[in-house]
């Protein structure tokens, strides 16, 4: 894989991806805003490294010059995706990231024509969020092309990294989101629950603003989409609290305080914890016109391991020129079965 640049390479997930890339015999360029961290990792892995922050477009363009594909692992992506996408289009560099943030997907989608004109691919969401769910959505749509409603539910065990925690905290004050009649609609956080049979048992799941509220619509054009998560009670209560405390939680000083606490108290899951983790994703497509329903289940390994495998597989295809240009979703570009190429992933139709 020639000329892949990994931005945010010394973060928890970026480093996992960089190390796995080396294990697979690739030589990505490592990048990030902290010179010491990025050059140290580059020296350890014997890779080229570049240090730049995202405050100046000229600088970003200069560092992307000659790069085929950038894989952005620096989140929250609300802060990093826009400047990198803008520079990627200008320098004719393909752009991938591992976001799950709905506004980031929506803004990236608005760059479709500019990306097509430049001949580049813009594909956010090449990690656990949203590769498995996007592929499951496409599969359900293939099974029931007249579907008007799509519901997805995720049940996962395993740990969570500092960056994921910070990104989730940023979203707490934003409430929930659903797709209704083709439109994104804000709803109170944590307000809807339902019971889902994951094959090994039933769980109560809570509506959650997962990236598919944006991406599954681009992939399938199914106009009504809900995503649910099996959440521990404190997380459900925190989502509900976000409805009333939203402005307070979103305030800069409060976010800084919460992020400092995360830095002190949260570390990403260990390799052993990841090896023990498992995820089940349930999906349901329903056609209002014919009253037909289709259900499928997808089982995956730990979300971070899926993120590493999916991001590297998509980066390899993109560098090889196999990704369509313009704004793309993973299943839109590579089909519903792409996720089955990842070790440990299996699918079952009910
Ligand atoms: N799609 C998925 O399924 C999936 C999977 C894993 C992670 N993620 C997301 O990926 C992001 C990173 O997660 P992580 O676990 O790797 O977090 P992490 O360990 O906290 O690493 C975050 C990285 O991003 C960099 N960064 C943050 N803000 C930046 C900015 N404004 N400009 C430049 N660099 C910036 C950090 O650099 P500094 O240390 O210098 O701040 C660090 O290198 C999170 O948003 C997380 O939610 C998504």
Automatic annotation (TrEMBL):
Superkingdom field: Archaea
A family per Pfam: Sacchrp_dh_NADP
Domain Saccharopine dehydrogenase NADP binding: 5-123
Database matches in Gene3D superfamilies: NAD(P)-binding Rossmann-like Domain
SUPFAM superfamilies attached to this UniProt entry: NAD(P)-binding Rossmann-fold domains
Protein name: Saccharopine dehydrogenase NADP-binding domain-containing protein
Organism of derivation: Natronocalculus amylovorans
């Amino acid at each position: 894989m020639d000329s892949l640049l990994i931005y945010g390479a010394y973060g928890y997930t970026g480093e996992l991806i960089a190390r796995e890339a080396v294990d697979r015999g690739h030589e990505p360029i490592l990048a990030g805003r902290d010179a010491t961290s990025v050059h140290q990792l580059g020296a350890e892995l014997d890779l080229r490294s570049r240090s730049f922050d995202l405050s100046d477009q000229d600088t970003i363009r200069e560092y992307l010059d000659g790069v085929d594909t950038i894989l952005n692992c620096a989140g929250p992506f609300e802060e990093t995706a826009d400047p990198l996408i803008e520079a990627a289009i200008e320098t004719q560099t393909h752009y991938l990231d591992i976001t799950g943030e709905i506004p980031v997907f929506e803004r990236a989608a608005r760059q479709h024509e500019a990306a097509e004109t430049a001949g580049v691919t813009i594909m956010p969401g090449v990690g656990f969020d949203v590769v498995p769910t996007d592929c499951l959505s496409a599969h359900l749509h293939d099974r029931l092309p007249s579907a008007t409603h799509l519901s997805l539910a995720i049940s996962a065990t395993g740990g969570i990294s500092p960056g994921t925690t910070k990104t989730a905290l940023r979203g707490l004050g934003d409430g929930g989101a659903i797709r209704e009649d083709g439109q994104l609609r804000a709803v109170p956080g944590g307000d809807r629950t339902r019971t889902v049979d994951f094959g090994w048992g039933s769980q109560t799941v809570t509506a959650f603003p997962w990236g598919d509220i944006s991406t599954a619509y681009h992939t399938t054009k199914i106009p009504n989409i809900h995503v649910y998560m099996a959440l521990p009670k404190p997380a459900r209560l925190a989502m509900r609290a976000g409805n009333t405390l939203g402005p307070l939680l979103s305030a800069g000083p409060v976010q800084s305080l919460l992020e400092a606490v995360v830095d002190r108290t949260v570390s990403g899951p260990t390799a052993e914890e990841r090896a023990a983790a498992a995820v089940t994703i349930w999906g349901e497509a329903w056609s209002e016109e014919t009253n037909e329903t289709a259900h499928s289940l997808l089982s995956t390994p730990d979300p971070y391991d899926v993120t590493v495998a999916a991001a590297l597989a998509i980066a390899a295809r993109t560098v090889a020129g196999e990704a369509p240009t313009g704004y793309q979703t993973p299943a839109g570009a590579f089909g519903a079965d792409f996720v089955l190429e990842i070790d440990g992933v299996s699918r079952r139709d009910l």
